[in-house]
Amino acid sequence: MLCATSRLLAARTATALPAQPRGRGPGARCRRRELHFPGHPELDLDDFLTGRLARPSVPVGRRAILRRGRMPPAVGGGPAGSELRPRRGRCGPQTARVVGPDETAKPAARNPKRAGWGSRHFEAAGRWALLALVTLLSFATRFHRLEEPPHVCWDETHFGKMGSYYINRTFFFDVHPPLGKMLIGLAGYLSGYDGTFLFQKPGDKYEHHNYMGMRGFCAFLGSLLVPFAYLIVLELSKSLPAALLTAALLTFDTGCLTLSQYILLDPILMFFIMAAMLSMVKYNSCANRPFSAPWWFWLSLTGINLAGALGVKFVGLFIILQVGWNTISDLWHLFGDLSLSVVTVGKHLTARILCLIVLPLTLYTATYAVHFMVLNKSGPGDGFFSSAFQARLSGNNLHNASIPEHLAYGSVITVKNLRMAIGYLHSHRHLYPEGIGARQQQVTTYLHKDYNNLWIIKKHNTNADPLDPSLPVEFVRHGDIIRLEHKETSRNLHSHYHEAPLTRKHYQVTGYGINGTGDSNDFWRIEVINRKFGNRIKVLRSRIRLIHLVTGCVLGSSGKVLPKWGWEQLEVTCTPYLKETLNSIWNVEDHINPKLPNISLDVLQPSFPEVLLESHMVMIRGNNGLKPKDNEFTSKPWHWPINYQGLRFSGINDTDFRVYLLGNPVVWWLNLLSIALYLLLGSIIAVAVQRGAHLPVEVEGLSQVLLRGGGQLLLGWILHYFPFFLMGRILYFHHYFPAMLFSSMLTGILWDTLLRLWAWSLASSSLARGLYVVGNLSLLLGTAYSFYLFHPLAYGMVGPLAQDPRSPMAGLRWLESWDF
Amino acid sequence: MLGFLKHPVVVTADINLNVVALTAMGLLSRLWQLSYPRAVVFDEVYYGQYISFYMKRIFFLDGSGPPFGHMLLALGGYLGGFDGNFLWNRIGAEYSSNVPVWSLRLLPALTGALSVPMAYQILSELGFSHCAAMGAALLMLIENALITQSRLMLLESVLIFFNLLAVLSYLKFSNSQKQRPFSPSWWFWLTLTGVACSCAVGVKYVGVFTYLLVLAVAGVHAWHLIGDRSLSNVSVLCHLLARAAALLVVPAAMYLLFFYVHLSLVYRSGPHDQIMSSAFQASLEGGLARITQGQPLEVAYGSQVTLKNVFGKPAPCWLHSHQSTYPMIYENGRGSSHQQQVTCYPFKDVNNWWIVKDPGRHQLVVSNPPRPVRHGDVVQLVHGMTTRFLNTHDVAAPLSPHSQEVSCYIDYNISMPPQNLWRLDIVNRDSDAGVWKTILSEVRLVHVNTSAVLKLSGAHLPDWGFRQLEVVGEKLSRGYHESTVWNVEEHRYGKSQEQKEREVELHSPTQMDVHRNLSFLARFLELQWRMLTAKSDGSEHKYSSSPLDWVTLDTSIAYWLHPRTSAQIHLLGNVVIWASASLATVVYALLFFWYLLRRRRKICDLPEDSWLRWVLAGALCAGGWAVNYVPFFLMEKTLFLYHYLPALTFQILLLPVVLQHISDHLCRTQLLRSLFSALLVAWYSCACHVFNTLRPLTYGDKSLSPSELKALRWKDSWDILIRKY
């Protein structure tokens, strides 16, 4: 993809050049390039890597001046020239023919020193070689021992299972949007996994099932994170050492490595987040050539990746906020540029709306369309959705429904609330606890299909069994007084003047009576919305209300989650307000009556927008339901950046194959330190600028990179970390990893800038150069060595636990709270 | 030297009669018939309890806010000579003669009354005209909800007062910044800003939002100051330090001071003791301190102890065992070890006593001299009454099958050997050789064979376990959680060798000689932590509402109903003011963005100074509304209409700002301007009329007939109480 993109860029830029709106003359470009050349980043780096210091030495400080002096005002934006050079270097002769118009500009653009031309090929080649090296190393670490352990690890049990559901096309429900699991399913399908493995619990052996396709897919996306981070940092700082440091931090982080090796949503999510970030940064660099092909390309790619990120998990929202913030500030600058007409600004705005709002929304919706199209068989997720929706699923009893059409006395029915994500009227053998209304049997609503959802519809005044074959069938009619008897417990649906458990203004609803005999508080009038009295009641189609005869209240569900005593099901109340809301309207879903003939019914199928809305309601409810319990150990957001505690992926005892998700402490603590240093350095520079201090040109350049590039990354870290403090749902360590990517990139930029500043402040140029090289190398080697120490965490370890001196991890348990 | 004699002594007083008149009207509206009704009205039932606790010096814990507000209310009681003897048990209960109702309600009423002239001052300081400032004050004056809330023992009006005071003094400060920095008045207003902010936070936690707003505005101003090249570096530094001291250090110190005063006022043990740690309880007079006074400090082999769980949820409880065994087979068909139950019991009981035993010796008494138990030592715990050993093994616990069952070992079954060695892990030890101390040490008991940790699971056992709390061995020692931590509460050195003697000894009260006190800081930190984590039960109140209902006034709260007539007090806002204030906010936002966009294109509709004034007014008033309103959407506690009042106050301040702006800048001709003024007069009389109509519900002084009440029910959602005769 990268290669193709660059080629496209090359061709497009070349043709676009002469036609640029406010085109800079060749002279301008010439000067630019001249300035650019001597201080080009990869020169230092080549030097560093090969130890070849042949070039007449330019003091590092001076190089910095030149390079930074060249930095355009746009955030991290490289000018057109910087896009051109490596490309031409790479495919010089071939593109020379395509790049007709540019050929004429070449002599002027050429560096005065002819000698530079040959080495430029060399630089570009070196640059690509480095990228290839970084990518290769990343792939090598991620794919090494990917097949181990050959059993289900941690959340593979969920996501592998959901991948299988896609292959088997059975409908299920999950709190995350479908894209990630669809991709896992697709990877499994393509690699020949047949969807028959059950993924019952962690530790189950895969045996002959082909799981490598799914793991390989996740590892592939996880491996791409490193080159992405490398490119982002390179684009933001124009410094190869910074990019290399970032790449090293991420390659050698055991946490990222572990998280990429299993069938999880996180590698997919992080892939989209980083891809969105990368394309946003790239697109920012094209800011001086608006509406050119690369501009459009990167803009729409940003949109596509945003859709991907949101489509995998809802936390993809944070990268959307980041891109949104970037776009707004971008537009604000354009709007303030009086040389642009309002119409042009309007065009900019429209382009962004199209690519960053309309396109992602369309794609996001499309993933749902595919999701619902693929999953067309009934499965474990049916009950979460409305009756109408279930009719779409083959195998569900409502698909081509064949049930008695009209409700009759003696029928066994399930009653479903019409509001989305509320569920079936339910009761079970548990009483309301003391102090909460009368101590009678609980009545709730429940989303799963269950025997406790079954009710028998009876006449209010007789106890005769209506299913007695000697009696004629009697239909229930609009306005009839009925009783609903819970089939499993033989208690009647009952209400009385007691406060409902949560909604205090409503009345409590209970199950009451023994073997179907209760009192007059069990009588309900059944009404159909918008129908005349005396009509029969249709299954599925009739929207009914149940009105309590004695108190005159209406049966409804408030949609509030009951506490632990109510098994976190939803509250059912009887509301004295007769306002017509969906909460108090029900429909009859299952209908069993042996005396009536089953006839085929076509249920009103919901339209796609309805289905989409409904599934979101169900997901949000599901997410809110994931609450930690009081006495449980839970991971707190403040644990994460300090790498306080890991997550056990597999194995507990000495004999097990143990994998432990824990960040490489050297990397993580360096990141933490870097954030503090960044804030310190950033505020010093900001205050100095505000005070009007005249910074030396080279420091000015560095501080621009630090404030703009670093600022974006810091924003990313903040956005991907702090919202978790506000979340009520249960949290895990792995939620921090997107933020960790941003903080590693920030570390790369910060240390590069720090070393450059330090080198600049030294008098002797050779000492400065030495310091810079040594500083960078020691950071790189330090991380690599720490990876060597901690790699058993990710690749798995067998044998005694860390307390034991014979363990491979002996002496490495630096924090008490790490339990490996 | 005597030069001053040459000039006459002159005192020039500059009295703004408007302010005086507004204050007088404010006082009249808030203080009129203040001691009516002489009955408990709505939340007075809570605040009254706390006042009584203060009067009786009994310790209590209220998670709803820091103690400053409660102390202010209690000050009223103190001045009125209240002895605290009143049972605050239900709304509507008649006050007995010893309750000084007037002085108890005086403070909130005074602060409510003073908010009126303060609104005037704020708008003048913002640079708006005298008319606008009068308008703001007059609107505050006739806002029914503010009046109702000020006239009772409630804290909202106090909070609003301090919010406004913080804004006003900051404005005064920033206005004197231009002319005379570092003058006495500059210092005065700067410090007052900090003090008012900390008072606002001290009254209710939501005050913190106004504090943050003031800090943000001060931050922006300070940033401009840094950019001011005409000031030397030293003077900029002085400016910044002064601000930091007044706006950060002073509030922090004040906040601590509130707690210091609070803790020195309430020093007796009371009904909320159980929530606090043993060490905290021991620092109170009476209660646990009386029992534990003079206990030996260091736990030694042979000590008799009770072990309290530190987490204490769902209930504070002690490690317990009794004669009954786990049922052979549970309801769900799983089996148990059928050994003696170990539970956590929320009441003091002789079965809570355990003896610390050295596994190497047989003695159950303390040797002379006592050998203290240290961190890392392996011990056995013997149940005092049954002499069985605390044991855990690889059997699933009754309710938490992932954890191990904890039992007192009985050797029924030889295939199940005793595993009763526990390693002591003192969590808050000073050094590695820390000694196990009564009350102060928090310990974890780690099982030697299985490395399981003794933990309170929080589940209630069924009837066979007498509904006591389940204790388990947590196999995965997943870090630190308070439910795995225990501390010794009662402690004595065991002396009796024989079981019979020992039982007698266990029943006798402990003897004490060491007196311990926690430092203020430790007590503050614990109290603050408990207050922040105290969970209010999520259950809903009849009059609770959601933030969305507030803007449109879709909800009301019935505060009080006369026991016989239908006179009643109802929290209801002046609908005209609420609607127009919300409208003004929308207009402000639209105009602001419109100007902002045009300024970006270098089209300046407003002169620079009036633009700056417009922005500052918006930042403080619209910002004040937003920060006091939006956070409620994220809060999980039960919310009521009165939570909106601080936000509403800021919105009312914004209203005249917008009106004056429209009249000055948008009405281009004189005719339009006159027309607009006429409209304003009509609108204000309309607001007055609404005030007057709702007045019986605000003061509760007039009994209305059912038809009149029905006529007042302008919205279906207003629960106005109508007696059925």
From TrEMBL, chain A:
<keyword id="KW-0677">Repeat</keyword>
<keyword id="KW-0812">Transmembrane</keyword>
<feature type="domain" description="MIR">
    <location>
        <begin position="534"/>
        <end position="591"/>
    </location>
</feature>
<keyword id="KW-0328">Glycosyltransferase</keyword>
<dbReference type="InterPro" id="IPR016093">
    <property type="entry name" value="MIR_motif"/>
</dbReference>
<keyword id="KW-1133">Transmembrane helix</keyword>
<comment type="function">
    <text>Transfers mannosyl residues to the hydroxyl group of serine or threonine residues. Coexpression of both POMT1 and POMT2 is necessary for enzyme activity, expression of either POMT1 or POMT2 alone is insufficient. Essentially dedicated to O-mannosylation of alpha-DAG1 and few other proteins but not of cadherins and protocaherins.</text>
</comment>
<dbReference type="GO" id="GO:0005789">
    <property type="term" value="C:endoplasmic reticulum membrane"/>
</dbReference>
<keyword id="KW-0256">Endoplasmic reticulum</keyword>
<comment type="function">
    <text>Transfers mannose from Dol-P-mannose to Ser or Thr residues on proteins.</text>
</comment>
<feature type="transmembrane region" description="Helical">
    <location>
        <begin position="212"/>
        <end position="233"/>
    </location>
</feature>
<dbReference type="Pfam" id="PF16192">
    <property type="entry name" value="PMT_4TMC"/>
</dbReference>
<comment type="pathway">
    <text>Protein modification; protein glycosylation.</text>
</comment>
<feature type="transmembrane region" description="Helical">
    <location>
        <begin position="296"/>
        <end position="325"/>
    </location>
</feature>
<feature type="transmembrane region" description="Helical">
    <location>
        <begin position="709"/>
        <end position="732"/>
    </location>
</feature>
<feature type="transmembrane region" description="Helical">
    <location>
        <begin position="739"/>
        <end position="759"/>
    </location>
</feature>
<feature type="transmembrane region" description="Helical">
    <location>
        <begin position="666"/>
        <end position="689"/>
    </location>
</feature>
<protein>
    <recommendedName>
        <fullName>Dolichyl-phosphate-mannose--protein mannosyltransferase</fullName>
        <ecNumber>2.4.1.109</ecNumber>
    </recommendedName>
</protein>
<dbReference type="InterPro" id="IPR032421">
    <property type="entry name" value="PMT_4TMC"/>
</dbReference>
<dbReference type="InterPro" id="IPR036300">
    <property type="entry name" value="MIR_dom_sf"/>
</dbReference>
<feature type="transmembrane region" description="Helical">
    <location>
        <begin position="349"/>
        <end position="370"/>
    </location>
</feature>
<dbReference type="InterPro" id="IPR027005">
    <property type="entry name" value="PMT-like"/>
</dbReference>
UniProtKB/TrEMBL annotation, chain B:
<feature type="transmembrane region" description="Helical">
    <location>
        <begin position="611"/>
        <end position="634"/>
    </location>
</feature>
<feature type="domain" description="MIR">
    <location>
        <begin position="296"/>
        <end position="359"/>
    </location>
</feature>
<dbReference type="Pfam" id="PF16192">
    <property type="entry name" value="PMT_4TMC"/>
</dbReference>
<dbReference type="InterPro" id="IPR003342">
    <property type="entry name" value="ArnT-like_N"/>
</dbReference>
<feature type="transmembrane region" description="Helical">
    <location>
        <begin position="671"/>
        <end position="692"/>
    </location>
</feature>
<keyword id="KW-0677">Repeat</keyword>
<dbReference type="Pfam" id="PF02366">
    <property type="entry name" value="PMT"/>
</dbReference>
<feature type="domain" description="MIR">
    <location>
        <begin position="434"/>
        <end position="491"/>
    </location>
</feature>
<keyword id="KW-0472">Membrane</keyword>
<feature type="transmembrane region" description="Helical">
    <location>
        <begin position="575"/>
        <end position="597"/>
    </location>
</feature>
<dbReference type="Pfam" id="PF02815">
    <property type="entry name" value="MIR"/>
</dbReference>
<feature type="transmembrane region" description="Helical">
    <location>
        <begin position="127"/>
        <end position="147"/>
    </location>
</feature>
<keyword id="KW-0812">Transmembrane</keyword>
<feature type="transmembrane region" description="Helical">
    <location>
        <begin position="153"/>
        <end position="173"/>
    </location>
</feature>
<comment type="function">
    <text>Transfers mannose from Dol-P-mannose to Ser or Thr residues on proteins.</text>
</comment>
<feature type="transmembrane region" description="Helical">
    <location>
        <begin position="185"/>
        <end position="203"/>
    </location>
</feature>
<comment type="pathway">
    <text>Protein modification; protein glycosylation.</text>
</comment>
<keyword id="KW-0808">Transferase</keyword>
<comment type="function">
    <text>Transfers mannosyl residues to the hydroxyl group of serine or threonine residues. Coexpression of both POMT1 and POMT2 is necessary for enzyme activity, expression of either POMT1 or POMT2 alone is insufficient. Essentially dedicated to O-mannosylation of alpha-DAG1 and few other proteins but not of cadherins and protocaherins.</text>
</comment>
<dbReference type="GO" id="GO:0004169">
    <property type="term" value="F:dolichyl-phosphate-mannose-protein mannosyltransferase activity"/>
</dbReference>
<keyword id="KW-1133">Transmembrane helix</keyword>
<dbReference type="InterPro" id="IPR027005">
    <property type="entry name" value="PMT-like"/>
</dbReference>
